Amino acid sequence: MIKVLFDECHGELSCSQLQEDNTPKEAWTILCGQVKQLFGDDAIFFQKESLTHQVLEDFQLLILAAPKSALSAEEVKTIVNFVKQGNSLLIASDRESLVINKDDSINAVLETLGMRFEELLNHPPEKVFNLLPHYISSEVSQLNIKEPVYVKTLPNSPYPIDIIATLPYTGKTLIATVEVPGNNQSGRVVVLGNYLILSNQYINTGNNQKLASNILCWLAHQNSLDCRVSRIPTEVNYRQSAKFSIVIANPKSQRLENITCVLESDKNALIQEPYKTVRFLPGYGQTQVQWNVIPQQIGQQTLRLTIDIPELENSETSKISSLFFAPVAQFQCLPDAEFDLVFLNPQGKAQEIVETGVTFEVQVIARWKNHAKAVPLRMQLECPLTHIKVEQISTERWYLTVLDPGDWLITLHINDINQKITRLVHAYPSQKNQIEKIQRDVVTPLAAEINYQVSQIRQEFDNEVIRQIPFQLFTPEEQVNRLYNYSTQEQLLEALQAARSETKRFSPLVEKLLQSIAPTYSPIHGCCIPYDPKLAAHLIKEHPFFEEQLAYNFQGIEGYEHYGQTWLEGNIAALFLHEKYGHGFFYNHTKVGQQLAILYRHGLLRKVDHEGLKSPYLQLFLQDEYKSAIETLHHSSIILNEGFATWMELTILRRLKGSVSQTVYRRKNFLFNDEYLTLLQQNSEYFKHFEPFYPSRYQEGYEYLEEIQSIFGTECGSKCVVQAVIKAAEVDFGIIEHGGRVEFLLSPGKIEEDLLSEHNDNNVTSPTERLKSIWKLLRKHVNEIRAEQQRLQCHRHCLHPECPVNLVIKRYLEW
């Protein structure tokens, strides 16, 4: 008599009964019913306490299903010994048991058998069709599953492992069996990567119930025959012979006679001697049965196998029935040929790149081998019809016209052999058309959403000055011509020309381009964003180290799926916030920013053509006299300016809709990996006096502002950040415009002395050092400011003259 023990003392996800509150769990009551039907009403027991040798000695089959609590080391040893003594084990798991509860003790049992459960990292399938011949898979062609794990076979497994079912797409093992040699009979183990297959919820779907019955009979040693190791080539040429074989084994000591095997084909393949008879099979013996199969049709085909087992006399323990496998094997019948797609231009010449709007021809080329006779095949060309116009000329020729630029996938389906050939159609418009499309389809919709979000912080972000700042994508050449003087233009345009034709690695060229051609805010031209993913794709072939920088500087890398439309939209949103609302606000609405903008417009912060200035000689004089002071002023504002732009970008990105909001994480990593200040510090008088905390120009200022926002909360924090930036940059260095010229009301020595002197907090003039002082002050007086904010209801209106932040700064720092 077979006695079966269901373990229920380790918080198994499945159980035999309802929970205490009578709510249904993933019960196995149907499976329990099968156990009783097969082995009798007295065959089933449930264990509520630890598994010990004394508990297991009266049982022949243990069922251990997805435990949530760990097995003890002693229990693991007991279970392993139980199997080695010739008993059987059904051990099952799933993602919740293995991953969520992180219990690896079940693998301690499996590892002694040469296996372990592993998390499936791919998308979990819901159906399984891939079953290999075995007693367990007889009459089983489909299983319904949910959130499985997979069974990994370990190297140097101590026992032969039979794979019964594999998961679609990944081919990873779902069900496996192993037999452990024992004194009288082998111990049998079934390893199941999804316990839900046998639960009440799923057992009556697909062929799950038949699988359950087969597993129970096999574990109880009630099968009269074992089947395994079926072989046939996965591809067979049309009308050529292939061998199919399968091993059948006798699991009993009693001799079997007159076993009949019948092989059938679903596509009328010619099978030589489809009926095979095994005259006798000795006890524990095995034999290989083999057929010659000659396919008569092209395409995917399956074979079915029926094995009739004669009834054994005086056998009470074996379940006598035929075994049926549909399919027992699958193969593809191919014509003895190779197929290819070629693109021909109107002149009949092969081409790889096409133009939008120009019709070209697509042909199928078949190369028949070994004097094979050409077989008519049904072919179909599949194209994205919204982007490509298709006209069929014959069964093997088509005219195509690409309507939109881009990379479009076309697929040739050779229906008779279930084979497909895919090719990319590369259609390139002018760079100008691409940029116009991005401005229309990406920039314009984002501009409206971003403007709404930033205006919720402060109304200054919605004023006419900020709204009128241009945000424009340019080709690299256009950006160079717009931002640089003639001599620099010449050098950079030559560098761009060299880069487009470069075929060997030369890092200085790429470094020069990345330093000079990048998203830029100009107080004259607004936001200038270079766009050329094609150039980035060309450069990355020899310079993979620069992948990320090339992608961010040129708005993507053509042909790289990672830098698709979603990536581009996120990057445009980030640059819109960083350049227009970060730097745009700083240069237009802060005192230091306005003075730096004057210097920029008059060519004192950049290289310009002096001939184009109203007073070139005055400009040259000022540039020479004030060069060091201007550089120090510029450097003293970098951490504040870039930190504020970074804060604007990362703060508002989180508030945008859809996948764009996810851009914040990759942008933060990119910005904080910047090492600009490390290089600048080597020659900067300012940064020699005030050593930056991070190599990145973006991180330090951002962290001060982020903490200010954090301490004042969601309602007032953002407003306080903007006010802190305004106050940090509220320093007058006497730089004005008068009569179209720039004038300095302070001497260069005075400007430089004020910026570099080690002042106390009250007298500091460096915008970055002022920000640090404000940050420390606000942290110290946070409760005082919060109380005043609540009294004034600052979350409703930002009252600048009465601003509690301003008042604290004035009281304690006298600014």
From TrEMBL:
SUPFAM superfamilies: Class I glutamine amidotransferase-like. InterPro entries: Class_I_gatase-like (IPR029062). This is Uncharacterized protein.
